Amino acid sequence: MVRADFDRSLEELEAELIGLGEMVEKAIVKSMDALERRDLALAYEVVAEDDQIDEKRFELEEKCINLIATQQPLAVDLRTLLAVLHIAVELERMGDYAEGIGKICMIIGEDEPVETPQQLGQMARMGVAMLQRSLKSLMDRDTDLADEVWDSDDEVDALYDAVCHQIFLDMGQNPKTIEAATHFLWVAHDLERIADRATNIAERVIFVVTGRIGRYKPPGELN
Amino acid sequence: MAVIPQSEFQRRQARRKWMGRAFHGLCLLSVCIALGMLAVLLIYLLQQGVTGIDWSFLTSFPSRHSDKAGIKPAMLGSIYVVLVAGVVSFTLGVATALFLEEYATRSKFATLAKINIANLAGVPSIVYGILGLQIFVHSMHLGNSVLAGGFTLALLVLPIVIVAASEAVRAVPPSLREGSYALGATRWQVIWRMVIPQAFPGILTGVILAVSRAIGETAPLIAMGALTFVPFTPDSPLSRFTVLPIQIFNWTSRPQEGFRETAAAGIIVLLVILLVMNAGAVILRNRFQNKWE
Amino acid sequence: MQDQDFILQTRGLSVYYDTKKAVTDVDLDVVRNRITAIIGPSGCGKSTLLRCFNRMNDLIPSARVEGQVLFDGLDLYGHDVDPTEIRYEIGMVFQRPNPFPKTIYDNVAFGPRINGFQGNLAELVERSLVRAALWDEVKDRLNASALSLSGGQQQRLCIARALAVEPRVILMDEPCSALDPIATLAIEELMRELSEDYSIVIVTHNMQQAARVSHYTAFLMVEEARVGFLVEFGESRQIFTNPEDERTEAYITGRFG
């Protein structure tokens, strides 16, 4: 094969990106776990481990820049490298949100236990599923799977609206829980953003496969 | 590198060096022999003939007395005949070469022509003399004239000019031709403005070779009727003539002692003329070559 | 690609050498005052195609052309078209710089002279050298031999020479492949400048050069019978980021030949 070396590098790069995705996935799950169980030690771990996620992202960035400089990539190779670059950033930001949830857990601490709204857990599970799906769609170059990520985002948005609504009601009814409630609002926001970032990743996947840059359009609307 | 042991390698290398030096020596020896013989010839000539060269020698007519013999008619005859031969062979030769290399390349006719021209170079010169006698002297009614002699010699040296000119034209890089065509030149313009100027040094070399050959020819001129004893100088293209080689030959076959010196003097004059012509052509060629570089 | 201003168009262009077909059925449109690159693996007929535009294939006895080549609507291979006239309008620069063994001045003046130019020759020479970005470097030694210039300068001289006959199109057959990278970039810069006033068609085997320099790119490929054909043609930024044909993509990503 004419560019075996380059192909190998690209494969390794993608594998590492998926690895970064797995790290982020674990972080999100861990952080929600910590929040739901008020496990401060676990929360602390999540916060500490975010450094590794950041480092990994910069490592990936450097490798991408290197390959772009030395291999003069064109067409699909160029799009792939650019997508890896962007997706790494999205993943790192998702890791930051997980870290944020961990910090909130630490702030809430072992306070008067206010029940964690169950929609938050749902949102987290959906967000993780979207992340997994978007990364799989990259691995398989599957634009249909990427489209599905977008569909899920609507559900997450609906959940977000519902949980916010719920929290406002609770705040009104029980002023003593306002502080905790505010923290939960923030968690909801973070989880909604995580889902959003997953859709960004899906957009990049579509870019790699079709070369199309731009806001997502459902298949029916593309001309 | 351990394919052969060190000692074996050194032995072989020493032998190679020795062989190299021996070969070098052999070549040097060959050069010395060739130059040596030339030197001997020149020294003998100069010894014999240099005393005989004076103004009267150059301006007198031949005579039965060796001390009164002169070389004027032969000298002039040679110069005129070679001039005619040079001009004619140059014109015909260059035109032929251009035709073969530029216009007709690769046609069967061209291949046939090239083979035959190469063969012509090997034809004995006397044949040209007989040909010249038949065609120029008789059929064209030119008589045994300078013109007929010049034409005869032109035919003789034509293959030399054609071959040299062909080489020179062929050596013009195709990229120069392409570049000219790409600027909108017609075929004629390419030949006249690019090929000929580029090939000119090579063509001149051909002419030098041709002239050098022509000036020494004896047999064909005798065959077509050049004189051996000429008491007058050729005053028109149609007048009769003799040339230096014939005159020299005439002198060497005389029994008197004195004519040996005269002959040697004649040879020296011939060589000098040859050198001057060559030098002139070489200077001309160098001037053209330098123009392009 | 409709509604564009095309200066050169080919329709069903095929080229044969004796009975062997070298290029088959090419339909290509060259946009006026833009740079069009022709890329493809070795032996795909890029140079053959290029040389159809100024009828340089006429110089090869065994070459035969079928189809049409239109130059502003005129069929270049029509009955009463004189190839030498065409070459005043469509100039060519070759792969290895081929300055004539004459002075710099005489090189540039060669074309106008054989064309019977009557005006101010010195001014034309200067203008051409200026446009070829060579004037400043040679203005004090116009009578020096052209062979004393460096490779990059020689190529710019060849460009000046081509410009001197005031063509409308300049064909370039791998003009930088014999030059070092700096000289190459200088020529590319020059090409960009010239494309404002001239239409340029460049054959190149250097993909990055095609991507850098051209507005449009045509990709030729060769199939088993060693016949070249046009695979894809479009805007360069499209071809190099997201080509439509997978063969184009395979070629430009270096995954074949």
Automatic annotation (TrEMBL), chain A:
Gene3D superfamilies: Phosphate transport system protein phou homolog 2, domain 2. The keyword Acetylation does not apply. GO terms for biological process: intracellular phosphate ion homeostasis; negative regulation of phosphate metabolic process; phosphate ion transport. Keywords: Cytoplasm, Phosphate transport, Transport. It is found in: Cytoplasm. One of its GO terms (cellular component) is cytoplasm. Residues 20-103, 121-205 form the PhoU domain. Homodimer. Belongs to the PhoU family. This is PhoU domain-containing protein. It comes from marine metagenome.
TrEMBL record, chain C:
One of its GO terms (biological process) is phosphate ion transmembrane transport. InterPro entries: AAA+_ATPase (IPR003593), ABC_transporter-like_ATP-bd (IPR003439), ABC_transporter-like_CS (IPR017871), P-loop_NTPase (IPR027417), PstB-like (IPR005670). GO terms for cellular component: membrane. GO terms for molecular function: ATP binding; ATP hydrolysis activity; phosphate transmembrane transporter activity. Signal peptide: none annotated. Keywords: ATP-binding, Nucleotide-binding, Transport. Residues 8-252 form the ABC transporter domain. The keyword Nucleus does not apply. PROSITE patterns: ABC_TRANSPORTER_1 (PS00211), ABC_TRANSPORTER_2 (PS50893). Pfam families: ABC_tran (PF00005). The keyword RNA-binding does not apply. This is ABC transporter domain-containing protein. It comes from marine metagenome.
